[in-house]
Specification:
35% helix, binds 1,3,4-trihydroxy-5-OXO-cyclohexanecarboxylic acid, alpha/beta, 5-stranded parallel β-sheet, 5 helices, Rossmann fold
Length: 152
């Protein structure tokens, strides 16, 4: 039987505060709720999911480096590092698996400094503005990519 494809789900700084942090912007689901939803969807899709969160840029870079050649895809919400981190961009560019960038909020409707994401340059696709549902969309999209091997 073929090995279950592994997906890394990464959440960046302050996303450990989900549920209580600006719920009018980010919703009331906690990170644990989001990860549980994602685990359930991954199971349905036949994917193994490794969920991690860090407030540290270096730790995120380390995790991305460690999955090189080992994972079938990455879903990442880099939080504020989206708008600042060339280091996370470079780490993702070195990974040979598809990356989907997720933002709970629609970053383009918000302050100008949120409109640009360095990480988007390494992303196969970007989903923003759908709240926690966006993570599930990302997993659906990755499952399709892995299945078909098709890059659009
Ligand atoms: C965010 C948007 C970022 O601008 C912000 O810094 C976050 C969360 C989102 O999910 O909407 O921390 O990535």
């Amino acid at each position: 039987m073929a090995k279950t494809p592994e997906i890394l789900l990464l959440n960046g700084p302050n996303l450990n505060m989900l549920g209580t942090r600006q719920p009018e912007v980010y919703g009331r689901a906690t990170l644990a709720d989001v990860e549980a939803m994602c685990q359930a969807r991954a199971k349905e899709l036949g994917l193994a999911l490794d969920c991690r969160q860090s407030n540290s840029e270096g730790e995120i870079v380390g995790w991305v480096q460690a999955v090189r050649g080992k994972c079938a895809g990455i879903v990442i919400n880099p939080g504020a590092y989206s708008h600042t981190s060339v280091a996370i961009l470079d780490a993702l560019l070195a990974v040979d698996a598809p990356v989907v960038e997720v933002h709970l909020s629609n970053i383009h409707r918000r302050e100008a400094f949120r409109h640009h994401s360095y990480v988007s340059q390494a992303a196969h696709g970007v989903i923003c503005g759908f709240g926690a549902e966006g993570y599930l969309m990302a997993l659906d999209g990755l499952a399709q990519l892995i299945d078909t091997g098709k890059k659009v």
